[in-house]
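hiii so um. not sure if this is the right channel but i have a protein structure encoded as tokens and i wanna go backwards to a sequence. like what aa goes where. can anyone help
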């Protein structure tokens, strides 16, 4: 994989401004080809009443990771709009979680992606599929 692994700043995901990434402290670990890997560090604010990572927090992580995989071929030129996201929760998780995502098919305007979330011990916590619309970024006015 020809991947980008440069560190990101709070509020950025793979060097692009994304307030949601800042709110969840997401860290882009790898992006390239048709793949992306994103870390969500543990925080009590992201948990349910049992102290496990909340399903909504995992869904945010999936949305960001799958979207990143869909634009991984040229992340500075394309953004994406989520059209559909289906999540299957398999096991509770505590601690940091990592999403890996792959864009299975990219057309001129539509992308189809899938992903997995594991805890740091490698346990599979959730699976997802998503459909995304590619949107070319507007060039800044001169």
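sure thing!! here u go:
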């Amino acid at each position: 994989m020809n991947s980008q692994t440069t560190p990101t700043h709070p509020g950025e995901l793979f060097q692009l401004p994304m307030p949601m990434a800042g709110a969840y402290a997401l860290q882009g670990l790898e992006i390239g080809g048709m793949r992306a890997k994103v870390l969500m560090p543990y925080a009590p604010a992201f948990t349910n009443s049992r102290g496990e990572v909340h399903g909504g927090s995992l869904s945010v992580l999936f949305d960001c990771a799958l979207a990143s995989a869909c634009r991984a071929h040229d992340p500075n030129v394309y953004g994406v709009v989520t059209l559909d996201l289906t999540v299957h929760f398999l096991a509770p998780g505590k601690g940091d979680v990592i999403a890996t995502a792959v864009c299975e098919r990219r057309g001129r305007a539509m992308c189809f992606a899938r992903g997995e979330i594991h805890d740091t011990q490698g346990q599979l916590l959730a699976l997802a599929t998503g459909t995304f619309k590619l949107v070319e970024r507007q060039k800044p006015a001169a």
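oh and The first helix runs from residue 19 to 23.
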